[in-house]
Amino acid sequence: MMGLEGKVAVITGAAGSIGSATARLMLEEGARLVLSDLDLAALERARASLTEGEVELVAADVSRPDDVAKLAARTIDHFGHVDVVFSNAGNFGTVAPIADYPLDTFEAVHGVHVRGAFLMAKHFTPLMRSGGSFVITSSVAAIRGDPGVYAYITAKHAQVGLMRCLAKELAPRNIRVNTVHPGPIDNDFQLRVEQGLGQEIGRDGTEFFNEIIPLGRHGSAEEVARAVLFLASDMSSFTTGSMIMADGGMSA
What we know:
Elements: E1 8-12, H1 17-28, E2 32-37, H2 40-48, E3 55-59, H3 65-79, E4 82-87, H4 103-124, E5 128-137, H5 150-170, E6 176-182, H6 188-201, H7 205-212, H8 221-232, E7 243-246
Parallel strand pairs: 1-2, 1-4, 2-3, 4-5, 5-6, 6-7
């Protein structure tokens, strides 16, 4: 067991592949869950795929302060406390030369990844108990650059800075803060990334990534979820301020 029995975990972006895979593993380890995403119908579909367990669904936009405050209030009303927060909501934007990159797209991506993670920390960390864990989904993009991926890559770099500040502030309360960094994952989100990048670099984006991943393949959502489970559990009790790479060696 990974030490989640009876703990309360909040997962944003829970209707996506990584969010739902993480929810499944956490339920199996005894956690009680609050799952959040933009679309309640998508959340209900994700919930239907899970095993038995205590699960609360809350539709929320993490870029909106009122929505995050509502999510925090619903969590406390339903479960009374918080032990784990998985700030996982994400969007990609587009791929374009800097002169053509749309400002509204840039701001929308940063609104979810950076503002969203900031708001989750602002509203949830004051509620978390000693021994808690705050995990942010970043990306291998946080340690590299690629042409045209201006919104997503800069947002992922920014999340690491946020994580490091939080880790030092919350350590005296025995709350750990870390980022998990997936490489290319075999899901719809990554496929959209690769289609956009492929147009920019003039070749198949999926083949491009497989060639630069030492393990030679895309990862699965469950492989990332297992890394998140480690960070959420007592198995990582001396791990904070860390970037956990789940990228098939792409960052090596």
